[in-house]
Amino acid sequence: MNTKLLQTVAALSLLAGVAVAGEDATLIINDEETMVTEAAAPAHAENLDRIYSGWVFRADETQVLQMDDFDNPAFVFTDQGQDLYDTVDGTAGESCANCHGDVDSFAGLTAQMPRVNSDGELETLTELVNNCRTERMGAEAWKYSASQMTAVTALIGLQSRGMPVDVAIDGAAAPYWERGKELYYTRVGQLDMSCSNCHEDNYDVMIRADHLSQGQTNGFPTYRLKNAKLNSRHGRFKGCMKNIRATPFKEGGDEFKALELYVASRGNGLSVETPSVRN
Amino acid sequence: MKILIATAVVAAFFAGTATAQDTVVPTAVMFDEGAVGVSLTGVVGDAANGRKVFANRKQGNCLACHANADLSEQSFHGEVGPPLDGAADRWSEDELRGIVTNSKLMFEGTIMPAFYIDAGYTRPLEKFDGKSILSAQQVEDVVAYLMTLKEN
After folding, report:
1. Is residue A132 annotated as a catalytic residue, yes or no?
2. Cβ B124–A190 below 8 Å, yes or no?
3. How far, rounded to the nearest angstrom, does the alpha carbon of residue B77 sit from its chain's CA centroid?
4. What is the ipTM for the molecules in this complex?
5. CATH: 1.10.357.10, 3.40.190.10, 1.10.10.10, 1.10.760.10. Which one for B24-146?
6. CB distance A190–B133 less than 8 Å?
7. For the whole model, what pTM was predicted?
């Protein structure tokens, strides 16, 4: 397809999108994959009746960008993720593809992350990727929210697109989940607010120019128009904490991992939308 | 005799701070059912400056949560709290001073930040540690501005 044609297609889909997007709109990707953007809240999200994807609260122009993979700017980065996935790196002379084959072998994984491993420790997808790099490839770990890391985790997430988020919160996961819940409801920062103040008590309300969502993580890593790159979950948590003038926890640290599990569990039942588009 | 001297010293100390600078520090603000009856600075609030503090994103940023028709030139007004049109018809000056200083004493558990406390919050970013969001005079200016929001 030449550029001119692409632009026309984009413009057309933009027009079509405006007609269907909006708060009651349905997110259908590439005219074929319907996402669950609204569902009954899981019983453990005790203060919510319904859960909604962040997509629901975005402006029409932002919503349509996610309705077609040609328009979705995140795909530039998942393509980079595919290159990284196929490229040999480190002293062992291996690539991700050498061991895992086609990336679609990861279908379903992101829907269940983070999870507790056989040592009883909570692990995130980011940590799994770095474990392979350091222990099996002899390569350097990537920084928690490095562009390579968000590219590869978004590519892996894409393999679960359309599947329901389904993280486990019982058994060995329970203490991590409880810790995450405690953090979610704890007020922090000079502005003295908790995640719940904005994303539970006030979703669907405008806070200055921002339409507050439930702060769900089913679309992560997400492409943000604001910084034109993929953003990790922990990066977003950090941003929200800084906005309320709180010292953020460390990316990849125990607090954000527990919070990641808890927040993900509030979205159990929404479709994985990775890589989503937000503002 | 010793006690007397001490009393005299304390009295001189208070007298001294009172004349040099009338500002009531955050921990010394006296609330009565959520209201604050005494000016935090003794200097009459400047409503025009209060209007700026109200809108400024790095200061009051009150517009983040409150719509206010008087600031219609500003493009985005939040909906988290009630619109403040006619605020002065609903509240007295003392009540407004209490609400801006520390709204938690008027509205239990509110999301609205306390604008004049400098302790008691958790994990502040270092550069805000030990500081209040607004200065005492900014609070007085905002209160003076709120007193102009009348519909009746």
Report:
1. no
2. yes
3. 21
4. 0.90
5. 1.10.760.10
6. yes
7. 0.91
